[in-house]
Specification:
With 236 residues, this protein is an alpha+beta fold. The chain contains 5 helices and 10 strands. Strands 1, 2, 3, 4 and 5 form a 5-stranded antiparallel beta sheet that branches. A 3-stranded mixed beta sheet has the order 8-9-10, sandwiched between helices. A two-stranded antiparallel ribbon has the order 6-7.
């Protein structure tokens, strides 16, 4: 979807990783310059030198230009590079969300080290719509196979490149964005496994049940009180 044309006092460029400007329809790094663009961090030249190029801010977004209009394709940090192939994490994840058992917005794709070849390959951690407590091993295998086939229409992903986890496992920022880098770190440290059930999830479910019980209890007591008041007025 086009973001439209930049305003008269806003300059936008698309460049490659070496800083060379790219032609139309070529995806690259988006640089921007305007009267309201930050001039950088105060007395932090060590950070600013990586934040700007020729006075233009490196937004961290990827995109391309067509007919003077800007198209954003995603965040650079979410780009997965495997065997020289650039893969957009969100686009890859979208293929898995077509499966009903997968929770939309609760999955994270990233590149991880291949223990046998020391190269990198795609991995994706996916939350299910119901807790793994109710998933038998055969069900998980069947689901992984289904997800693998769906994603492989975009890029080949084997079943051992998919980890199915319980609701509440995927880490997000306060603004609701998936923390893919953090999920990769947790996975590589062995803290993301199908057998693990996040305690926060079960505590959350318990609290939900408590709240529902209280609401039901208050509702029942309210109805009883109303009935007593009505009968009391009738008796008078």
């Amino acid at each position: 979807v086009s973001c439209g044309k930049p305003l008269a006092d806003i300059e936008v460029k698309i460049v490659d990783d070496r800083g060379n400007e790219l032609p139309e329809r070529s995806i690259g790094n988006i640089l921007i310059k305007s009267p309201s663009t930050t001039e950088g961090y105060y007395q932090r030249e060590d950070i600013n030198k990586d934040l700007f190029q020729d006075g233009m801010l490196k937004t961290g977004d990827l995109g391309y230009m067509v007919g003077g209009e800007l198209y954003i394709t995603g965040r650079k940090k979410d780009l997965i590079i495997v065997n020289g192939l650039n893969i957009n994490a969100e686009e890859l994840e979208s293929y898995a969300t077509t499966i009903k058992e997968v929770r939309a917005g609760r999955l994270a794709a990233f590149a991880r080290k291949d223990g046998t070849t020391d190269s990198e390959k795609v991995h994706i951690v996916i939350e299910t719509r119901k807790s793994l407590k109710y998933f038998k091993t055969a069900e998980r295998l069947k689901l992984r196979n289904k997800i693998s086939k769906e994603i492989s229409s975009f890029i080949p992903v084997k079943e051992d490149q998919i980890t199915i986890v319980a609701p509440g496992t995927i880490q997000k920022t306060t603004s609701g964005k998936v923390q893919r880098a953090k999920m990769r770190d947790l996975y590589e440290r062995g803290q993301i496994e199908e057998q693990n059930f996040p305690m926060a999830y079960f505590i959350g479910r318990f609290r939900e049940m408590q709240i529902k019980s209280k609401i039901i209890g208050v509702s029942v007591l309210s109805n009883i009180q109303q009935s007593i008041n009505i009968n009391s007025r009738k008796a008078k």
